[in-house]
Amino acid sequence: MGNNREERREDLRARLMAAVEDQIMQHGIAGLKARAVTAQAGCALGALYNAFDDLDMLVMHVNARTLARLGEALKAALPGQGATAEEMMQALAGAYVDFACANRPLWIALFEHRLPAGRDAPDWYRDNHAVLIEVVVPPLRRLRPDLDDQALALRARTTFAAVHGVVLLALQGRFVGVPLSDLRAEVGALVSAMTRGAHLAGPEHGV
Amino acid sequence: MGNNREERREDLRARLMAAVEDQIMQHGIAGLKARAVTAQAGCALGALYNAFDDLDMLVMHVNARTLARLGEALKAALPGQGATAEEMMQALAGAYVDFACANRPLWIALFEHRLPAGRDAPDWYRDNHAVLIEVVVPPLRRLRPDLDDQALALRARTTFAAVHGVVLLALQGRFVGVPLSDLRAEVGALVSAMTRGAHLAGPEHGV
DNA sequence: GTCTAAATTGAACATCGTTCATAGTAAAGG
DNA sequence: CCTTTACTATGAACGATGTTCAATTTAGAC
What is the DSSP letter of B178? Predict the structure, then answer.
């Protein structure tokens, strides 16, 4: 193992993040305990506050990692140049569902973790979320060539949020959520309806 | 005030629920404290556990009240017989946005409050959520007369969840959420696209 | 080898939700 | 009216949690 200070510090941070990931996977973000994390990481309770500001900041680092993996999964799912806009949208939505299902507790932690009132997340954390919107813009631009960049960015957020809502209610097990067995098909139907409707709303068909 | 035991018990329960509502409105569901609730309700800390099983159950009673008010708002927003399916959908979505904005912390409490792992909500609580789906079925049936009741119920959940997702990310102030100033317009655009797309997917136009 | 600054430790602290022994009080019986 | 009984109210006490801190250990510089 590394002997100098910097290496040991980074090693502890990595062990703590790995422990948080594992604990969230096992017990969910709501069941995360500082003592369980430090015990699994093999350090004292107080060491957590030397490596990170607090438990919230540690969770944000893990969330950033999850977000990066999610972004890679979305980009990897994008089809080649020959694909239609709907095919691109379906590929993105399908990859989103797959990632959320395969990493359910970590994905839920992305959207259930809240900072105490008053504190707001650092910029590097906010900026990591941009990828979720950016991937939606290109296919949306094909559907709505009449919209400028600002309107496209806004509509991309709306489109993402719509798909996200269906996945979230389903994976949270909310009563109004769609059963998991129907999730993929229903998201597919939603994306299909949204893309057809968006295309219809374009200027060449009149509003 | 009531003197017999039943009346006093109901009065305490009502005072506790009112206090929880007020506390959630002021500090959000995450800032809810049993001591602040009992202090505002004018009773001892332990009295909470005589009137309700625990704080979670008390929150569920308040959530049920919020849900009932939301259901009434949705039903009241439905237009008359002459309305088109899209007009019904737009009216419902608009009322949903309006209620969520006007009762933001209480509405957020509906979807952020979670029971500890293992425990699941009682049936009377689950059943209260049905109204959110039921109101969507009639207009959806007009758009998709080809779907049977089961498929309609499923698609109604998906449609609700899509709108809900846009409102939730916006009102939670998430980074990927739509700005509050654009929320109404974006939800309108989403509903428009979904209804046009759903109509297109109907059998008379081929799939 | 000595010194300084950083890291490590786990006990202590403040703050939660929840429980419990105690005290008080309302309804029932004679 | 008094006694009894069952329910209610109380707030101190408990266990669990995130965070802090003084004491200790250790790594790096001179």
Answer: P
Cβ distance of A182 and B116 shorter than 8 Å:
no
Cα–Cα–Cα angle for A123, B177, A207, rounded to 5 degrees: 135
Residue A23's CB: how many other CB atoms inside 10 A? Answer: 22
Looking at residue A1, what is its pLDDT? Answer: 41
The answer to whether the beta carbon of residue A8 comes closer than 7 angstroms to any atom of strand C is yes
Name the nearest CA neighbour of B182 among B193, B166, B197, B164: B166
Is A190 near strand C, with its CB below 7 A from some atom of it?
Answer: no
Q: Which of A133, A179, A193 sits opposite B197 (nearest CB)?
A: A193
**pTM score of the predicted model:** 0.95
Considering only residues 29-88 of chain B, list those whose CB is below 7 Å from strand C: 32-35, 45-46, 48-49, 54-56
Pairwise CA distance, residues B116 & A95, whole Å: 30
Asked if A111 and A169 count as a contact pair (C-beta separation under 8 A), the reply is: no
Chain segment A18-74, per-residue pLDDT in tens:
999 999 999 999 999 999 999 999 999 999 999 999 999 999 999 999 999 999 999
Can you tell me which residue has the tokens 């979505």?
A: B93
Q: CA–CA distance from B67 to each of A131, B25, B95, B111 (Å)? A: 34, 15, 13, 11
Residues in chain B, overall count:
207
**Any idea which nucleotide's C1' is nearest the CA of B50?**
D8
Report how far residue A119's alpha carbon sits from residue B12's, in angstroms, rounded to the nearest whole number: 35
Structural domains of chain B, ranges and CATH numbers in brackets: 1-52 (1.10.10), 53-205 (1.10.357.10)
CA distance A63 to A107: 8
